[in-house]
Amino acid sequence: TTQGEGGAAVLASSLIGILLQPDAASIFDKPAVKKRIPKSMRVRDLKTLCMRLFGLPVAHIELLYNDGKMPVSTPLDDDAASLDFFGVDTGSVVRVQDKNDRRSA
Hints:
The chain has three helices and five strands, in the order αββαββαβ. By secondary structure, the chain is an alpha+beta fold. The chain has one domain (16-98): Phosphatidylinositol 3-kinase Catalytic Subunit, Chain A, domain 1 (Ubiquitin-like (UB roll)), CATH 3.10.20.
């Protein structure tokens, strides 16, 4: 039906393509993963996805994102907030870190 196709088009337009980059000692050997996810996805749901992909416990996951235009990464530090709230968009890189993996300088 036309209505169904319209809904699919709306959903497709709300999807963003991001790169999930493992950035912790325990998962450094895992490859980066490209994913298409909804902009409305909550940070906690992205952490759950990262747990499935990289095997890191959700409680240990810390996410930082960069859109390629910023000199520093932004922490995704509110589990209840949507990715759109932080400005995560297509082409963003989200680094997956382990809170317990503090590297000493």
